[in-house]
Amino acid sequence: MKPEAVAPLGLSKSDGLEIHTAMMAGDPTAQARLVTLVLKPLVRYLNAKFVEVKDQTLIYDAATDAILSYLKNPQQFNPAKRSLSGYLKMSAEGDLKNALDKEQRRLSKITPLDDVEESIFARNTDMEATENDNSDVPSLVGEELRKTISDPIDQSLVELIANGERKTNVYAEVLNIMHLPIEQQRRLVKQNKDRLTKKLRRLGVKLSENSSER
Questions:
Q1: Are 145 and 155 in contact (CB under 8 A)?
Q2: pTM above 0.70, yes or no
C-alpha cells in the first residue's frame, strides 16, 4: 500500500488538494479545517519518527511552525510535486531538525541563565509588580531573543505575552486570524502563547502568570 493511501496525517491527497485550493481562493474556513485535521496527527508522526526526542515542546513547536508557515504562505506549496500531507511532514521534520541543532549549539555554550535573562529582558525582575506601569516595560527584542525567536510575528507575540496582554483579539490581529470564529481564534492564540512561553522558560525567563485570554 502506498504511503498516501493510509493518509498518516488524517489528510488524503484529494482532501489536501481541496483544502489547498480553498486556501488559495481565500476561503476563511480552510485554515481551521487544516489545523483541526492535521495538528495532532503531525505531532504523533514526529513522535514516532523521532523517538529519541523526549522534549515534547520541540515536537509540538515543529508541528505548529510547519502548519503556520503553510497558512502564512500557501503559495509555497506545489501540489504537482507532492501531497499537502507529505509537504507538511517534510516541513515539520526540517523544523524539528533545525530546532535540535539550535538547541545543541545553545547547550554547548556555557552561558549562565541569569546572564541570558538579563540580556533579553533588562530590568525584568518583577513583572507582576510592574504589569500596570507601561512606562517602564523593558524592550524585549534583544540580540539573544532574535537568535532564539527570529520570526517577526513570534517576536510581536512575545512582546504581548511579557507585557501581560490578555485579550484574544490583540493576539489574533498579530496572527492575522481575525476572520476565524472566536473559538478557533482562542485555540490558535493559546497554542501560540503556550509554544512561545515554553521557549522563553527554557531560557530561564520569568514571566507573569496573569495572562489568560479574554
A1: yes
A2: no
Q: Which of 137, 71, 148, 49 is nearest to 105 (CA)?
A: 148
- The whole-angstrom separation of Cα 70 and Cα 117 is 32
What pLDDT digit, counting tens, does each position of 72-123 carry? 999 999 999 999 999 999 999 999 998 888 877 766 653 444 444 444 444 3
Cell match 488524517: residue? 10
Give the model confidence (pLDDT) of 117-172 as tens digits. Answer: 444 444 344 444 444 444 333 344 455 566 677 778 888 888 888 778 888 888 98
70 neighbors 33 (Cβ within 8 angstroms): no
Q: What is the end-to-end Cα distance of the chain in Å, rounded?
A: 47
Task: Output the DSSP codes for 132-201.
Answer: T-GGGPPP---HHHHHH---HHHHHHHHHHHTT---HHHHHHHHT-TTS-HHHHHHHHHHHHHHHHHHHH
